[in-house]
């Protein structure tokens, strides 16, 4: 009984001692922590530290404090998220061709998610510098576009104190105009028409801008952005996209492939890269129904589908959106003489390539990106293994769900499509 009583006292004493130690440690620990940090910052050996196995004292330093402001890269508004997009190897196409085929991920631009972000921002900046528009003054930006430029303008207009009025053909994917409305733009969908028609979407935007400016009862001015003829377009790629590609490839590049709608991307990149890389091949990727292929190959704007009685649509007879045109534009002509070759891509090839990129690489892009990749593969086969080719991945497939991807359908799980299937415009599901 006596021993049992002593054990109870021992247990109670141990519990009390532990409790007091914990309470004391709570107060002492912050003090010890401060002392340790002071010793670390001084670079001295901690008191009582022992030499390591090599006979040297270990010096500890504190990396949790200090001024790291010089390492911060914080963008100034959404405009600061435009440009410097990644360049990455498209693994499946590279492995299948023996060339390194790189995609410039322009769909990761932070404004409207396409290369048109660069163009829209540059057009607004140059108009501001010229005194044509002023933020928060009621000025409205008018533009005729098939979608991407309008989305970029609508985004940046909101960011810079303007409103956007977008005119677009009514046969474009519905999600594009829905997106524009969510961005606060005013949207007019007009019937597709040739450029000589005053109701054509570009002409309509031009007329609305002029009418706005002439109406003294309306607030602000109307500014027609004019992406097809405005040289701020190709200059944006000369100053941004081209230098980025040169830097990202270390100047080791054999070919650049891109489609053309306004022509700003291919002209701006060509004008920057060609003087630095004289042997570089600049290649146009052109969808069916567009006349630019023949403009490059033969110097004339003509497509066989333009023959009387053969055309089914008023603009370019293709399911592809964003590239392909049947008229000469200032931005395309700015770099046309630097374009070495052109490949025509059918709708069937573009659809098959879109499915391939999802199936093999998990890359979900739109119709113009698919056309670019088909042309890149055709060029890789022409040049032979061992070359480096860069192309543009313009926008996400989410903008093409109701039209292009509705035609492409869902991608199955078998993954047995071949590159021959793509080039023949067939599917092996």
Task: Describe the 3D structure.
There is one protein chain. With 429 residues, the protein is of the alpha/beta class. Helix content is 42%, strand content 12%. It is built from 14 helices and ten strands. It has helices at residues 2-42, 91-97, 116-129, 148-160, 174-182, 201-214, 232-249, 264-276, 292-298, 330-333, 347-361, 367-383, 404-408, 419-423; strands at residues 87-89, 100-105, 140-144, 163-169, 186-190, 222-224, 255-258, 281-287, 341-345, 388-393. The strands form two sheets. It has a six-stranded mixed β-sheet, sandwiched between helices. It has a four-stranded parallel β-sheet with strand order 5-4-3-6, sandwiched between helices. β7 (255-258), α8 and β8 form a beta-alpha-beta unit. It is globular, with a radius of gyration of 31 Å. It starts with a helix and ends in a 6-residue tail after the last helix. Residues 306-315 have low confidence and may be disordered.
Question: Topology, please?
Answer:
Layout: H1 2-42, E1 87-89, H2 91-97, E2 100-105, H3 116-129, E3 140-144, H4 148-160, E4 163-169, H5 174-182, E5 186-190, H6 201-214, E6 222-224, H7 232-249, E7 255-258, H8 264-276, E8 281-287, H9 292-298, H10 330-333, E9 341-345, H11 347-361, H12 367-383, E10 388-393, H13 404-408, H14 419-423
Parallel strand pairs: 2-10, 3-4, 3-6, 4-5, 7-8, 7-10, 8-9
Antiparallel strand pairs: 1-2
Helix pairs in contact: 3-4, 3-7, 7-8, 11-12
